[in-house]
Every structure is written in structure tokens, then in C-alpha cells.
Amino acid sequence: MAKKQAAKTENAAAEPQVFAVVRTCGKQYRVTPGTKIAIDAQEGEPGDKITFSDVLMAGKTGGSDVKVLSGSDKSLGVTVTGRLVRHTRAKKVIIFKKRLKGGYTKKQGHRQDQSEIVIESVSL
């Protein structure tokens, strides 16, 4: 059992994984190749390629090879591409308002439109 764990840690140390932090729709996501993320609805059909241009940070796990990109340093050549899988809707959020002793209640529901994206590549 200890040999299997040692082999796993050696393989993990031998293959650093590329990651990036992208900003889209006002939120930030840490992504690696193969990661699925659900973001606010994007235009396009399932199967379309999506390129994230607003990359905040990129690097490799387990190493000191991390690039931090500031707002004016967008020319370091980091690109993150993904594929649109499907359009979905998030879980319902219930908004309930009530005023005590006033007889006032209001109940609303909302479901946000989302797009599911699979990250295909992060190139440094």
C-alpha cells in the first residue's frame, strides 16, 4: 500500500499541471484542462469554442513557474480555450419578504441561465 502511495506522489511530482485564473461575467475561476465550469449564459451553440481573454494568473502546480498578470500586462501570451457543452439553468433561489404586524408577504423565485463549459487547453 505504501508503494502505491509513493508511486502516486512521484507521478504527481513528475507531471506539474498547468492552471490559470480567468475572469468572466464578473467572477473569477481557477481552471485546469478538463475542468467543467458553469458560468452565466453565453451566446453560441453546444460544441462552439470559447476563448477567455481576461487571464489574471497562470502557472504550473508544484513549481515556482507562476506568471501573475496585472491589468496592463495582457501581452504575456497566456490563452485559455474551452468548449461549450450545454445551456442549463441554476437551482431556484427563493426570495421571501415579510413585514410583521402588517400582513405583507411577498414570495418570488428566480433561476439564472447558465452555460456549462469544459476547459480544453491552457497555454503558457
Give the structure's gist in a few sentences:
This protein is mainly β and 124 residues long. Helices cover 10% and strands 53% of the residues. The protein is built from one helix and ten strands.
Layout: helices, strands, pairs:
Layout: H1 2-14, E1 18-24, E2 27-31, E3 36-40, E4 49-52, E5 55-60, E6 66-68, E7 79-89, E8 93-99, E9 104-110, E10 113-123
Antiparallel strand pairs: 1-2, 1-5, 3-10, 4-7, 5-6, 7-10, 8-9
Question: Would you write up a description of this structure?
Answer:
This protein is mostly beta strands and 124 residues long. The protein has one domain (15-123). It is built from one helix and ten strands; from the N terminus they run H-E-E-E-E-E-E-E-E-E-E. It has one helix spanning 2-14, and strands spanning 18-24, 27-31, 36-40, 49-52, 55-60, 66-68, 79-89, 93-99, 104-110, 113-123. It has a four-stranded antiparallel beta sheet, with no helix packed on it. Strands 3-10-7-4 form a four-stranded antiparallel beta sheet, with no helix packed on it. The longest helix has 13 residues, at 2-14.
